[in-house]
Amino acid sequence: MSLDTPSQPATRLARLTPHEARQRLADERTSRLTQLQAIDEAGADVGEGVMSAQKDTVKRVLAEIEAALGRVQNGSYGNCRTCAEPIPVERLEILPYTPYCVPCQRKAV
Fold it and tell me: For residue 44, what pLDDT is reported?
């Protein structure tokens, strides 16, 4: 199934509740914090450059999660930051902290 366009019109209108969004984001945060801990524990077993890159990536995702929690708080969660259209719930289930729909994400890359 493509995330560009919904298979049914009702799919695009489906929304995560604020509670569901917060729970998914909390789960993502916990997962990323666990990753950071594992990276720190791996220590000298892996090259410093690799460790630094992994930590930077995880920290970037944590910042995106915090930003998404802010969008839940202010009511803008689930709407694309670029086009303001609703982000399909299927995309939010996979990547709950994304601020973009697939078409706008592709344009940004």
Answer: 60
